[in-house]
Design a protein that fits this description.
Blueprint (H helix, E strand, L loop, with lengths): L6 E4 L7 H8 L6 E5 L2 E6 L2 E6 L3 E7 L4 H4 L1 E4 L6 E4 L5 E12 L3 E8 L4 H10 L4 E3 L4
Parallel strand pairs: 5-10, 7-9
Antiparallel strand pairs: 1-2, 2-3, 3-4, 5-8, 6-7, 8-9
Length: about 140
């Protein structure tokens, strides 16, 4: 972490998905996290998106999803939204005001992350004045 005030939120890695995530995307526990300080730094193996927290417009907790459509680094075909997902049980969608560049050539207006503690992560966003909602299917 370069920002000493940043808080780290690990991305949850499913027990049965860990091997696949490591081989295909270079994901290990030490490089699967979201740091939240002055900037939001989301890292997932070979993938990374960094943006000022002031660029975050809103958040939304969603899920669960089908395993086959959730696990890994994904980019939506229709909307270009990226996912850094280690489990299919649910995660947090982060919407940006301006597109964020990541993975060298791509830009996105939103990113899904399956942080281990979505409630703590979204509480940290709320504490920074960022609105959102919990829309999980229960």
């Amino acid at each position: 972490m370069t920002d000493p005030a940043a808080v780290r939120f690990p991305i949850e890695l499913g027990r049965r998905s860990r091997g696949l995530l490591r081989v295909l995307f270079g994901v290990k526990p030490e490089n699967a996290y979201v740091d939240l300080g002055d900037d939001m730094d989301a890292r997932f193996g070979y993938g990374r998106f960094v943006t000022p927290v002031s660029n975050i417009r809103s958040w939304r907790i969603e899920g669960p999803w089908l395993w086959i459509t959730a696990i890994g680094i994904r980019r939506g075909i229709r909307d270009g939204v990226f996912s850094f997902d280690g489990v299919q049980t649910g995660g947090v969608r982060i919407d940006f005001r301006e597109p964020v560049r990541g993975l060298r050539i791509f830009k996105t207006l939103a990113l899904y992350v399956t942080v281990e503690d979505p409630e703590a992560f979204t509480a940290a966003l709320v504490a920074r004045g960022i609105p959102g909602e919990d829309a999980r299917r229960r």
